[in-house]
Amino acid sequence: MNEIYRALSDPTRRRILELLREQDMTAGELADHFDLPKPTLSRHFSVLREADLVQSEKNGTSVIYSLNTSVVEDALVTLMERLRLPRRKRR
């Protein structure tokens, strides 16, 4: 779970996930949305893959990324359970 939280802590990685929520994209298509060097984006993709938040598939010379929705959903559910506060008594 720590890898997931670490991956989600960066605004660039969160934006990548937002883009992938709309559709699968190649690394090049994702890069078009950022003003960052390709090695920097490659590292962001690697962190997201290590956290299992995205899946990648090589197609010829392109790498296609997709959102791993089940892991994202599990991470959010776990986070919400950990943050659940005791209910206050109503007056």
Brief overview, please?
With 91 residues, the chain is of the alpha+beta class. The chain is 57% helix and 15% strand.
Helix and strand topology:
Blueprint: H1 2-8, H2 11-22, E1 25-26, H3 27-31, H4 38-50, E2 54-59, E3 62-67, H5 69-83
Antiparallel strand pairs: 1-3, 2-3
Helix pairs in contact: 1-4
Structural notes for this entry:
With 91 residues, the chain is of the alpha+beta class. 57% of the residues lie in helices and 15% in strands. The protein is built from 5 helices and 3 strands. Strands 1-3-2 form a 3-stranded antiparallel β-sheet. A hairpin with a 2-residue loop joins strand 2 and strand 3. It starts with a helix and ends in an 8-residue tail after the last helix. The mean pLDDT is 89.
